[in-house]
Amino acid sequence: MTIKSQNITAVAHRVTATERRAVNGHKGGVLWFTGLSGSGKTTLAFELEQRLFAKGYQVYVLDGDNVRHGLNSDLGFSPHDRAENIRRIGEVAALFAEAGNIVISAFISPYRDDRKLARSATLEGFHEVYLSADLAACEARDPKGLYKKAHLGEIADFTGVSAPYEEPENPDLEINTGNLGIEESIALLIDFIDNAFGVSRT
């Protein structure tokens, strides 16, 4: 990406990643949840955040709806705006991860190239988690009534109905949330986190 700002210099932090890990009991990094609307991203993200926080982890959720109320309130849902939405979130998530946090990012993020760009901000600390409930399961849930509105033509560019979703080709973790419940999914996530983030807390 081309940086338009001139006369800027990156400044090194005086607290190292090793020092942050020693205090937190885990490495910083990003869990990037992707999947269709209704696949359970937000539900699992906030449930996981609550449980990890109760164990003393430094953890924070970046959720699609919440971010669009503030940082990305100027963006719509066109392909260009979706790409910019994910680019910004990728950079914000990388900053949280650099600060030593486990970042749980819950975004549909329908395009592979956009997810690759988000990964490039965090590199080895980025873990793509595909919640692979299929369209039928997500439409049956439709917790916000969005699929119904999309089929009625009240929502344009809706992923899975009038806009595409490109499934991850090699996700770091896949959870079929169409078949698995919350407890089973959380158990898989916590096991993954313990390994991926070098958790040392008891």
Give a summary of the structure in a few sentences:
This protein is an alpha/beta fold and 202 residues long. It contains eight helices and five strands; from the N terminus they run αβαβααβαβααβα.
Assigned CATH superfamily: P-loop containing nucleotide triphosphate hydrolases
Largest sheet: 5 strands, parallel
Name the CATH architecture.
3-Layer(aba) Sandwich
* Number of DSSP E strands: 5
Helix percent band: 40-55%
- What is the average of the pLDDT values? 90
CATH class membership = Alpha Beta
Rounded Rg:
17 Å
List the helices and strands and how they pair.
Blueprint: H1 17-24, E1 29-34, H2 41-54, E2 59-63, H3 64-68, H4 79-98, E3 102-106, H5 112-122, E4 126-131, H6 135-141, H7 146-151, E5 173-175, H8 182-196
Parallel strand pairs: 1-3, 1-4, 2-3, 4-5
Which properties best describe this structure?
alpha/beta, five-stranded parallel β-sheet, 8 helices
Tell me what the structure shows:
- This protein is α/β, with parallel strands linked by helices and 202 residues long.
- It has one domain (17-196): Rossmann fold.
- It has 8 helices and 5 strands, in the order H-E-H-E-H-H-E-H-E-H-H-E-H.
- The protein has helices spanning 17-24, 41-54, 64-68, 79-98, 112-122, 135-141, 146-151, 182-196, and strands at residues 29-34, 59-63, 102-106, 126-131, 173-175.
- It has a 5-stranded parallel beta sheet, sandwiched between helices.
- Helix 2 (41-54) crosses helix 8 and helix 4 runs parallel beside helix 5.
- The chain is globular and about 55 Å long.
- The mean pLDDT is 90.
